[in-house]
Amino acid sequence: MEQKKIKKKMKGWKKALIIFGAIVLFFSIQIPVMLAINNGTFSAGNAEQYYVANTPALEANALTGKTIIFLGSSVTFGSASGGESFVEFMEKRDGIIPVKEAVSGTLLIDEPVYGKQSYITRMKTIDTSIQADAFICQLSTNDATMRKDLGTISEGFDPENFDTLTVAGAIEYIIWYAQGTWNCPVIFYTGSQYDSERYAAMVDLLLQIQEKWGIGVIDLWNDAEMNAVSEEDYKLYMVNGIHPSRASYREWWTPKFEAYLLEFFSE
User: Is 94 helix (H, G, I), strand (E, B) or coil?
Assistant: First the structure.
């Protein structure tokens, strides 16, 4: 009887180990696949033909030689396009001199996420002696995804009144610091449209802040031409609702940045 019990237990353990092994095998396959999907590995828009290296330079223009600081998170970094975003495409196409401070998953509000520092904290690590021609900041989708407090626009321009634990306060602080540190124009940019009422509210808030501070805004969210893109092109351009592919940066986003900045620097 005792031997039967031992054999029964051993069969139970073997069955449990088989099930456990199957689960481990499943996740060892699925996790890399999901990561590859999320970072655009299988995206047609990340084909070699769309690489920065395979992108021709344009003739010298009003952007050539301009030093531009870029502050942002995954979209500025190019997390779903091999680390190539509009920053690298403008460097290649237009000959800008970029200073890129972009870390995926980070927030506008002054709060670290999984050990990654906020926009504000990282902005303060950028060389203050840079002779910048412009400072461009991403309106981060992460603050919307993580449901951070929008806050309210302050009445004045005193940084003591900016609540940097809210989106409004963080944006105002970034503007104040960038203008005071590099004495250059400040421009924010929005993402293209995706299904997010909270991000839509952030865009509206940014446009209100624009009226107060007189900053520039590259508003892809409300761009009629961007929103009229065909379904076929959208699949090529976007790895998901938020993150563009290389094809998107090269053919859809970068031309919008160039058009805005060429007009901006020609004024």
Answer: helix
pLDDT at 82: 96
Q: What is the pTM of this model?
A: 0.85
Residues sharing a CB contact under 8 Å with residue 193, sequence separation 6 or more, in sequence order: 220, 221, 226, 227
Between CA 212 and CA 220 the distance in angstroms is 20
Compute the radius of gyration of the chain from its Cα atoms. 23
Residue 212 contacts residue 153 (beta carbons within 8 Å): yes
* One-letter identity of residue 77: F
Six-digit token pair at 205? Answer: 């808030």
The whole-chain average pLDDT of the chain stands at: 90
Number of Cβ within 10 Å of residue 156's Cβ equals 9
Place of tokens 């009887």: 1
pLDDT on residue 36: 41
Provide the 10 A C-beta neighbour count for residue 76: 23
